[in-house]
User: Fold these one by one.
Assistant:
Number 1:
Amino acid sequence: KAGVTQTPRYLIKTRGQQVTLSCSPISGHRSVSWYQQTPGQGLQFLFEYFSETQRNKGNFPGRFSGRQFSNSRSEMNVSTLELGDSALYLCASSRDRSTDEQYFGPGTRLTVT
Amino acid sequence: SQQGEEDPQALSIQEGENATMNCSYKTSINNLQWYRQNSGRGLVHLILIRSNEREKHSGRLRVTLDTSKKSSSLLITASRAADTASYFCAPWNRDDKIIFGKGTRLHILP
């Protein structure tokens, strides 16, 4: 079956702008998690959505938000972009996070100039 | 929150040798998973070991879990150039959010 897809794959934005990233999970998976990966901070958990509800949230400012739709597709939004938001954003899907393995998408490489 | 901490941070070995990476965590878990990430790409799930299991194999991979020591190890036998990647462990607990560690950077030398 098809894997996790993320769009766009690469994105360049200007400081102060906002951005929306999209993630389509594997069919049948209801949990979608988002991660930010930077060379300095490593892989950091942003949030997790399960059946359209945010189930868990990491330690990121309110500029980072997300949502999940009834078909389990998820979006994350970053408003008022800062240079430090430049990172690889990964999403992962699973049937139920606590018991099943997560399947990661290829990521969206965001560069803020 | 539950964080996996991998050790060593970096490892270089000759092709054909075995590579061993370790992971430690702090609280009780439901399962522990290992992932691989090739440079700048998404993570690939390697293996899941449940809290009531002690050892698991998948091809050239062998994972052990010692819940009394809160530690796990990943052994890659007969390493190949394609094994060059970063490896992350992810200890899972139903009520915790997961924080990945910095990973172990494995470099296979020709």
Note: The first strand of chain A starts at residue 5 and ends at 7.
Number 2:
Amino acid sequence: AQSVTQLDSQVPVFEEAPVELRCNYSSSVSVYLFWYVQYPNQGLQLLLKYLSGSTLVKGINGFEAEFNKSQTSFHLRKPSVHISDTAEYFCAVSPLRTGFQKLVFGTGTRLLVSP
Amino acid sequence: ETGVTQSPTHLIKTRGQQVTLRCSSQSGHNTVSWYQQALGQGPQFIFQYYREEENGRGNFPPRFSGLQFPNYSSELNVNALELDDSALYLCASSWGLGGGAQNEQFFGPGTRLTVL
């Protein structure tokens, strides 16, 4: 079984400041890792994913994340945030085994960007 | 290319009633997954359909059931509604199974169900 822990329920930050949203996971099998963003009254949009290869993954809207296998972490970062980045961010994992793709989500981190 | 659409957008039911939620998958996709997102929580996997067959189920009781049609659209049915069923129900479509890059799930905007 897999589980995902997002350590911060809410992260307030000023516009143009850097931000890091933390994610740790637990799994008995190898997993893929994802970050999704959810704007108010909308569905989920994929920001980035780690499937294999380089542990530093770049996504849309200037976000990036680093996979750390030894620490079982996949923290999301952005060097300079905008007001429009205010949203809920979800970290998720999915087992690699063939024939089944089930996303296991964390509880989310609300990013609040103020001027 | 049409994205994932869900209907209705909002729904209010009372305890004990039954509800059907609908999802149209993105063009070219043959796999649909359903998730329940309670207020303040992350989405939880309900089940997945691949080519009209259920292909995996999360920890939800049998009163949660689904269907996938030949055009790959899908329905989620919930019987004997309980107050705790109040949530945002998300549908996601993808092509094929497995975890490869081509299997990225695309989410619809969701249906918000309120059970009174």
Note: The radius of gyration of chain B is 13 Å.
